[in-house]
Specification:
By secondary structure, the chain is an alpha/beta fold. Helix content is about 45%, strand content about 15%. It has a single domain (about 1-110, about 135-230), classed as P-loop containing nucleotide triphosphate hydrolases (Rossmann fold, 3-Layer(aba) Sandwich). The strands form three sheets. The protein has a five-stranded parallel sheet, sandwiched between helices. A two-stranded antiparallel sheet has the order 4-5. The protein has a two-stranded antiparallel sheet with strand order 7-8. The N and C termini lie far apart (about 45 Å).
């Protein structure tokens, strides 16, 4: 069965993936090679195995479950990372109960996602905002179908699979408590042993400063033109976004941002 680590891009997925990869490893230290324990989905290898047309979203969607079936034939339990929405295209569901037993979903203030994704992709804020508000958003580099930021969040939140939803901001504010919640959830669905001391060590190994230093020292093959681990700050939108851009993103995702507590303050407090 597959347990997903899912999120919209630049929302803490690689952070949690690093923590969990280290936790699943016998090594006390962390290195990026450990991330191979939690591979990305969909993957080039799976596309090639099923001869999927990677330039056709319909063909990709038609092969979501066949690709997952291959993964599950080879492994009793697999952790996979994805930025795909939990959606249905042409009657093809992203996953089903034969392949999935639950997921961790990471969510981040979309105003900060906007800034981080813009830097990651080396594009303009306007282009990123168009992507985040497009129902047909498709990440060519990952071959993932994302839809809007709100649709992405709702698609996973409203899923009936066992789940835990973690806010990026909560991970920053109280890493120990929230990573303990993740391991407790995985203990419940996968019988993953709970080791409090190991959790503490893995939190230190995978914190933002540790990952940033490791990237500077060794490089990181998931980085683009810019460093992957940039700032990781909460609320950086207050220093970067103008009122027009802030209003557009808040109007577009008003309901979800209120539900998540991102709009409890006066709109234009800078």
């Amino acid at each position: 069965m597959i347990t997903w680590i899912a999120s919209y891009p630049k929302s803490g997925n690689t952070w949690v993936r690093s923590f969990l990869s280290n936790y699943l490893s016998d090594n006390e230290d962390f290195n990026f090679k450990q991330l191979k324990r939690i591979k990305k989905f969909p993957s080039e290898a799976l596309f090639e195995e099923l001869n999927v047309n990677q330039n056709n979203a319909g063909d990709i969607a038609a092969n979501w479950i066949p690709m997952q079936s291959i993964v599950n034939l080879k492994n009793k339990l697999t952790y996979l990372k994805t930025h795909n929405a939990m959606m249905t295209i042409n009657n093809h569901k992203f996953t089903n109960a034969d392949n999935t037993n639950g997921f961790i979903y990471l969510v981040r203030d979309p105003r900060d996602v906007l800034i981080s994704y813009t830097s990651h992709m080396s594009i303009s804020l306007e282009t990123t905002l168009d992507i985040m508000t497009s129902a047909h958003a498709y990440a060519k580099q990952d071959k993932t179908i994302m839809s809007t930021w709100a649709n992405h969040y709702n698609s996973w939140k409203n899923s009936n699979f066992p789940k835990i939803i973690i806010k990026y901001e909560d991970l920053i504010e109280d890493s120990e408590n929230n990573f303990n919640k993740i391991i407790t959830f995985l203990n419940k669905i996968n019988n993953l042993p709970i080791d409090k001391e190991k959790i503490k060590r893995c939190i230190v190994n995978s914190n933002f400063d540790s990952l940033k230093k490791l990237e500077q020292k060794e490089g990181f093959d998931e980085a683009t033109k810019n460093a992957f681990f940039r700032k990781g700050k909460v609320g950086q939108w207050k220093e970067v976004l103008d009122k027009k851009t802030t209003k557009k993103i808040e109007d577009s995702f008003n309901k979800e941002m209120k539900d998540l507590g991102y709009l409890y303050l006066s709109r234009f407090v800078h």
